Amino acid sequence: MVTKPTDAQRAIMREKARADTRAMEEALKAKEHLDRAERTREVTIAKLDQTVTEAKGAYQLALDRLTARVGKELVAELLGTELARSPRPRSQT
């Protein structure tokens, strides 16, 4: 025979259910926060990658223009580095 829970037992079960619900809500909020953070991170990385790509392109263009004006050896001397051994095709700018 099944006995009915007492008032105290029902109160304990209600409080446990509330605690479970709060824990689930907190987990869902944390998951949403994590998802937003990951999306923000991905967008930030993509923007930084684009910025780096643009900066590399601008730097290479500046080097090409400088090399066209003063020569490879002088540019290497000015930068304190050795430029690529094989000549790059010059742009028509």
Write the layout of secondary structure elements.
Blueprint: H1 7-70, H2 72-79
Output the keywords.
93 residues; 2 helices; 0% strand
Task: Describe the overall structure.
With 93 residues, the chain is an all-alpha fold. Helices cover 77% and strands 0% of the residues. It contains two helices and no strands. α1 packs across α2. The chain is rod-shaped. The model has no long low-confidence stretch (mean pLDDT 87).
Structural class: mainly alpha
Helix and strand pattern: HH
Helical content stands at: over 70%
Low-confidence stretches: none
Gyration radius, to the nearest Å? 33 Å
How many strands, what sense, and barrel or not for the largest sheet?
Answer: none
Strand content: under 5%
Straight-line N-to-C gap: 94 Å
The helix count comes to 2
Structure summarized in a few sentences:
This protein is mainly alpha-helical and about 90 residues long. About 75% of the residues lie in helices and about 0% in strands.
